[in-house]
Design brief:
This protein starts with a helix and ends in a 37-residue tail after the last helix. It has helices at 2-28, 51-60. It is built from two helices and no strands. It is elongated.
Amino acid sequence: MKTKNRNLLLTCASAAALLTVFSASASAAGVAPPPLPPGSPMVKVEAGASPAEAIRTERAHKHGNLRNKDYMRPDVAPAPGSGTTSSPATPPNSPSR
């Protein structure tokens, strides 16, 4: 008998919860959003950053020394009179061409 009462109570509670949810959504449907501020139709909204911000971001993240860098050459200049040229260095343990 206790199980039947518990199931009945659970069914009634869930039905009451569903009615509450549906009534809350129905009452919220009649609420209007607040009015827009004056001058809002004159604002032109564009997706993404403004052109000035895009230029600023490009300049901030561009590093001229890394562009077109040959990573196969050493960063240091050869010692004077060492006889080395500016040809690409061969990595160790690599087959010769």
